[in-house]
Amino acid sequence: MTDAVIRTYLELTDPAGIRPAAPPRIEGDVAIARVDPPDGATSRWFYEHVGAPHQWTDHLHRTETEWQAWAEAVETWVATVGGERAGYYELERSDEASAVEIAYFGLLPHAQGHGLGGHLLTHALQRAFALAPCARVHTCTLDGPHALANYRARGLEPYKTERLETR
User: Do the Cβ atoms of 121 and 75 come closer than 8 Å?
Assistant: First the structure.
């Protein structure tokens, strides 16, 4: 028997369509900072720790050199609460520079449920529009239960869905 995973692709083509989230309801100062210079170890750490509950396994085989090359090809932004890592996002420009993909986005388990995801997504969308006239992201039914709702609440609209069969 196979199970299906539904992947949903979303985009926003006008920065005026961003619907900012309310401030997070979390103890501690929230900061969002770019990782500069790019650091492959940071990208790998977040991919592993944010992605583990959601079966992010496609890139676990990457070498240190490959992680560093990835980090140099994207912008990585890290959210902290009270100085502790809470979540991240990575932006990847399309080849034609007409869109920016939120390639990875997520919170660590301890930071979920406090409105930080909407706050971080608002930041990601604002940064994406500083780089290109269109922001895109995709999610699937393996992601957190509020991922799709958060994307839609911030103004992103689905433009394609696909069914992926798994074993």
Answer: no
Query: Cα Rg for the chain, rounded, in angstroms?
Result: 15
Compute CA distances 165 → 49, 95, 154, whole Å: 25, 29, 29
Q: Residue 112's closest CA among 83, 139, 141, 143?
A: 143
- Residue 131's contacts (CB-CB under 8 Å, 6 or more residues apart) are 75, 91, 93, 100
Per-residue pLDDT of the chain (167 residues), as tens digits, is: 457 889 999 999 999 999 999 999 998 999 999 999 999 999 999 999 998 888 888 899 999 999 999 999 999 999 999 999 999 999 999 777 799 999 999 999 999 999 999 999 999 999 999 999 999 999 988 888 889 999 999 999 999 999 987 65
DSSP-derived 3-state class of residue 15? helix
For the entire predicted model, the pTM comes to 0.93
> Using CA atoms, how far apart are residues 161 and 167, in angstroms rounded to an integer?
20
Q: Are 67 and 40 in contact (CB under 8 A)?
A: yes
For residues 94 and 150, what is the distance between their CA atoms, to the nearest angstrom? 23
Partner residues linked to 158 by β-bridges: 10
